[in-house]
Amino acid sequence: xxxxxxxxxxxxxxxxxxxxxxxxxxxxxxxxxxxxxxxxxxxxxxxxxxxxxxxxxxxxxxxxxxxxxxxxxxxxxxxxxxxxxxxxxxxxxxxxxxxxxxxxxxxxxxxxxxxxxxxxxxxxxxxxxxxxxxxxxxxxxxxxxxxxxxxxxxxxxxxxxxxxxxxxxxxxxxxxxxxxxxxxxxxxxxxxxxxxxxxxxxxxxxxxxxxxxxxxxxxxxxxx
Amino acid sequence: xxxxxxxxxxxxxxxxxxxxxxxxxxxxxxxxxxxxxxxxxxxxxxxxxxxxxxxxxxxxxxxxxxxxxxxxxxxxxxxxxxxxxxxxxxxxxxxxxxxxxxxxxxxxxxxxxxxxxxxxxxxxxxxxxxxxxxxxxxxxxxxxxxxxxxxxxxxxxxxxxxxxxxxxxxxxxxxxxxxxxxxxxxxxxxxxxxxxxxxxxxxxxxxxxxxxxxxxxxxxxxxxxxxxxxxxxxxxxxxxxxxxxxxxxxxxxxxxxxxxxxxxxxxxxxxxxxxxxxxxxxxxxxxxxxxxxxxxxxxxxxxxxxxxxxxxxxxxxxxxxxxxxxxxxxxxxxxxxxxxxxxxxxxxxxxxxxxxxxxxxxxxxxxxxxxxxxxxxxxxxxxxxxxxxxxxxxxxxxxxxxxxxxxxxxxxxxxxxxxxxxxxxxxxxxxxxxxxxxxxxxxxxxxxxxxxxxxxxxxxxxxxxxxxxxxxxxxxxxxxxxxxxxxxxxxxxxxxxxxxxxxxxxxxxxxxxxxxxxxxxxxxxxxxxxxxxxxxxxxxxxxxxxxxxxxxxxxxxxxxxxxxxxxxxxxxxxxxxxxxxxxxxxxxxxxxxxxxxxxxxxxxxxxxxxxxxxxxxxxxxxxxxxxxxxxxxxxxxxxxxxxxxxxxxxxxxxxxxxxxxxxxxxxxxxxxxxxxxxxxxxxxxxxxxxxxxxxxxxxxxxxxxxxxxxxxxxxxxxxxxxxxxxxxxxxxxxxxxxxxxxxxxxxxxxxxxxxxxxxxxxxxxxxxxxxxxxxxxxxxxxxxxxxxxxxxxxxxxxxxxxxxxxxxxxxxxxxxxxxxxxxxxxxxxxxx
Lengths: 224, 832
Hints:
The structure holds two protein chains of two kinds. By secondary structure, chain A is α/β, with parallel strands linked by helices. In chain A, 36% of the residues lie in helices and 25% in strands. In chain A, the strands form two sheets. In chain A, strands 6-7-8-3-9-10 form a six-stranded mixed beta sheet, with helices on both faces. Chain A has a four-stranded antiparallel beta sheet with strand order 2-1-4-5, covered by helices on one side. In chain A, helix 3 (99-109) runs parallel beside helix 5 (143-155). The mean pLDDT of chain A is 86. By secondary structure, chain B is α+β, with helices and mostly antiparallel strands. Among the domains of chain B are: 58-234, no CATH class; 512-682, no CATH class. Helices cover 56% and strands 15% of the residues of chain B. In chain B, a hairpin with a 6-residue loop joins strand 3 and strand 4 (103-109). In chain B, helix 1 (6-15) crosses helix 10 (293-329), helix 8 (236-278) packs parallel to helix 22 and helix 15 packs across helix 24. The chains are: A alpha/beta, B alpha+beta. Chains A and B meet through helix 1, helix 2 and helix 3 of A and helix 1 and helix 9 of B.
C-alpha cells in the first residue's frame, strides 16, 4: 500500500541540519504501524511529509504504486481528499458545524450528494458508538466523544491510509483505551492501513508493528 | 465550490454573531446613506424635469435671458418669423408674499397662445368666475401643489408684493395639469406685467416650429435677432443646467456616504482578519483534508460577499426609508436650496438600488480579500499543532506607502474632471490608504519607545501589543478611518464657518440693511422709496444695491450682477487686485472666485456683460471671496450700471446712521413708513446670526454621516476585542490560574483597547489633517469655487479624541466580559 524509500527531511530546507534521513517503510493494506520516538524526533513531521503537508528534502513516497514525491499542491489536495484520513491529538472539530456535518465534511469535499453524505455520516457515527448524536453541537460533547467524531470523519470516505497523530494524547487512560479500540477496529474493518504516532506505550502495544524514529530512519522497536 | 461545503464558511458567520451583525450594519449604513442621497436627488431632478416639460409643453425652442427679462418687442419679430408656427410669451415673477415665508412662482401667460404651445399651463376657471376670468386683472390660478402650500381655494384672496406695495389677487381657479409636485401660479400676461411693474418686459418666449423648419438653422437665424444676454435654446437645456448646479453638492454627499461604506469595508477587514487568525487551525485542518488553496480563498471571499449582500439589501431598504423621511422633513435638495418650489415624490429605481447592493457586496469582498489571501497561504503543518497561538503579524508595506503617498500628491494637483473634483476624492482615498499602510510600522515604533511601566497590567498590555502589533493594527484601522473622516470634516467645517463669519463681517460694514424681498422676488426699492428712506430721521447715508442675473453664454449658469458703490470704504473681501478704480479706459468690475474658475478670468482681464440689451466691456480690477453665490457674481459701480441700463431700482439698501442714533429706532421708523410686511430690516449682527444658523443647518446631513462613520469605527473596536477576547480565552484562563482577578483581566483588555484606539486616533487625526487640506484646497475649491482659511478646532478635536479612547476602552472591556464568564479551568482545557 505505502512504500517509503530514503526519505529525508532537514530543519531549514535541504542545506539545514537533518531532522531525519533514510526513512524506509512498507505498509500493507489492513496493517497498523505505530511510530514512537523522543519528543522532537520528527514523528509528526514525518506524517506531514507523507501527507504532502510539508515538503521533503529527498526520497520517494509511493501509495498504491503511485509516486507521490514531486506532486504539486493541487494534486496532493486531490489525493488527501480521496485516499487519506486524519486523526489528530487536538480533535479539530469545527465548532460551527454540528456533529453530523463535521463527519460529512470529507464527503462534501468530494462533492458527494448532501443527503447521501448525511446518511453516511450518521451511519459512521453509529459505528463509533455515537448513534443519535448527529444533531448535537461539538460543545455538548466530551473529549472522548469528540475524538470518536474525529475517527468517524477520518473513515467516512473510505480512505486507503489513515494517519493518526497522538489520537489519545488528550484523553485519560480509560477513554484512551476505548477510543483506540474504536479506531483500530474500524480501520481494520475498512481494510485501510494506518500509521499511528504515539508516546503511549499502551497505544503502541495494540499496533501490528512498532517502529522508532531516529535521526537515521525508522528502526524496529520492541513493543513495550 | 460544492453546495454543502458552503456551510463550512457560512456557518462560521452565524457563530460569530456580534462581529457579523456589526459588520453587516456598518455596510448597511454606508449603502443606506449613499442610496438615500441618490434617490432624493433623482426624485428632485425628476420633478424638475416634469416642471420643465410642463412649462415648455410642445415648445421646440425657448428664447430666454436673464431674470430681468428683455423688451417684449422681440416677441413680434419672433412670432413673425416664417420658421415659427406658434409663439407663446411668458413673464415669470417670483412673487413675494407679505406675511409668508418664501415666494410664489407666477407665470404671466397669453391664454390664447397657451393651447398651442403649453397646454398643461391652461388655467381652469372656477364655475362662478366664468371662462373669461383668466383675462381679468386681479385674478390668479394656483396649481394644486401651490393651493395646498398656501391653504387657499377658489374665491380666497392672496396678497402679493410688488416693489414696496401690497396687492390683493383673487384665486379664481386652478392649473389642473400642472402636476402634484409643481408649486406655481398662472395669470394673464398683461395683468402680471402691470401688477409687478414689468410693463414691456418678457422673460421667455416658447416657440413651436413650423412644419419642415430646421431647428439648427432656425436657432442660427433667431440668434441674429436677439439682444445681448438673450439666447435661444432647446428646453431640455434647463434640465442639464439644474443637474449641473446641484451636482457638486450631490457628489460631495455621495462621497461622504461612500467613505462611511469604506469604513464598513475596514470593519469587515478587521473582523475577517481576526477570524482568519482565530481559525487558522481550522483552515490548516481543512487543507489537510484536501481543501485546495483556491477553494479556501473563495470560501472566505464568499463569507465577505454574503456579509456584503445582506448589508447591501438591508442598506437598500433603510436607504428608501431614509429618503422618504428626508423628502418629507428636509426637501428634495437636502436643505441646500437648489430646488425651491417643488414637492418631489420618491420613485423606486431598480438599477440604482441594485448598484448600491452591489457596492455593499464590493465592500464585503474588498474587506475579505487580504484576510482570505493570508488564510490561503497559511503553512498548514505548523498550524495543525495543538497550542499554536494565533498572533497577528503584519509587515510594513513600504512600496505601497510610497505609491499611495505619491498618488495623493499627484491626484490633489489634478484639475477638475467635468466640474467634479475627482482628483481630490482620489487624493483622500490615497491619504487614507497611506495612513493604514503606515499603521503597523507606527505601532511598532510606539511600542519600542523607551520607558518601562511598572504596573503589571500596563506591562502585559504593552508586551502583547509589542509581540502582536497586528492585533493593535486591526483594532485601530477602523478607528483611524472614521477619525480621519470625522476630524477632516470638523476641520473643514470649522475653516468654512470661520471664513464665512469673517466674510460676513467684511461684507456688512453698514449699520442697518433693508431689503424689499429676497433678491429673486418681486419686491424692490424704487427711487421714491430710496428717497423716503434717506429722509428718515437718524439716517446719514443710503447705499442702494441692485442685484440682477445675467447670462454670459448659452447653456451657462447665470451670474449675479451686483451694482453698488465700491469705493468710499464699502469694501469687498478681495483675494486679488484692488478696490482702486484708477483711470482705466474701461469701467472696473470685481469678480468672485467662481467667475475666475468657471470663466478663466484673472485681474486685468476683460469681461463683457449684457446690460440694456447690449454687450459692455469691463476690466477685472479684483477678485473677491463670495460664499453666497456658487455660480459666480460680478460687482460693478452702481453709477456705471445706472448710466448704461437706465434701471434705477434697488433690491437692498445699506444704511449708515448718525453717530449716537439707535438703529432699533430707525428700524421702527422704516416699518412705520412702509408697513410691517413690506421691508425686511436687519442689523449686520442679525444677518450674521441668521446666516450662521442656515450654515449650521446645511451641515446637519454631513454631521449625521460623520456620526455614523465614528459609530462604525467604535463598532470595529468592540468586534475586534470581542473576537480577541474569545480567541485568548486560554491565555486569560492561564492568567486566572496565576492569580489575576476577572476585574484585572477586564482592565487589561480596556488598556489594550485604549492603546490600540489611541494609535488609531493619532493616525486618524494626522490623516484627517491631510484630508482636510484636500477638502479645503481641492474639493471645495473645485466643487463650489470658494476658498477659505484653514482653522483647526484644537479643543474640540482633543475632547473628541479623549472621548473616543475612553469609549473604546469601555467597548473593549464590555466585549471581553463574555470571554471572562467562562471558568478558568474550562478555558485552559479548551481545544478550539
